[in-house]
Amino acid sequence: MLNNLHTTGHASQDEQKLMLQLVKPKFFMPMHGEYKMLRMHADTATEVGVPAENIFIVSNGDILVMRDHEVYMCDSNTIQTDDIYIDGTDSSGIATAVLKDRQILSDNGLVSVIVTIDSRTNSILCRPNIVSRGFVFVKEGQTLMKEAELVVYEALRKIMIQKTTFGEIKNTIRNTLEPYFYSRTHRNPIIIPVILNHKDAIALMQANRNRY
Predict the structure, then answer these.
(1) DSSP strand E in 119-198: where?
(2) How many other C-beta atoms are found inside a 10 Å radius of the C-beta of residue 87?
(3) Residue 23: partners with Cβ closer than 8 Å, 6 or more residues away
């Protein structure tokens, strides 16, 4: 048993020429490799007699039309294709939006804004609490966070003079903090508003008391 036998799976140029001479293709499309590899494979096909106009070097998403024993490139349309990034054991790939969020997290970090309101009276019960991860160093950022809490608090007090919705509250938090943080740090962290309604806040406090 040749258990230690390993092959790369890539034929040599002479082997490619032999296969082309045996198959004698009228049309030829090199595939699987970087552009320079596809170009070299196309040149090899030309050397063994495949007409240059019948050789197609394509990119992901390009369309070749095969009709009436002829092949030609479709110039009017392409298929939308993206790279597939494997996430752990999930082979279905990661959405572009997820990758974008992870890039922002790695570059700028995350800020969570916890706001406690009473929807019955349409009022904010206390100053928001801001928690950050990967955004600013905790000790150096304490003053920044305290100032940001006051900025959000004043913005929310203004919009909550009238009846508002959770969506409007979240948008106000983001629209207030995004330019504020960028003006102070030149960074754009992901901002996650967390709204606790009066009953939710009481339940959370009771749960914390029971825990300790």
Answers:
(1) 123-124, 129-133, 190-196
(2) 14
(3) none
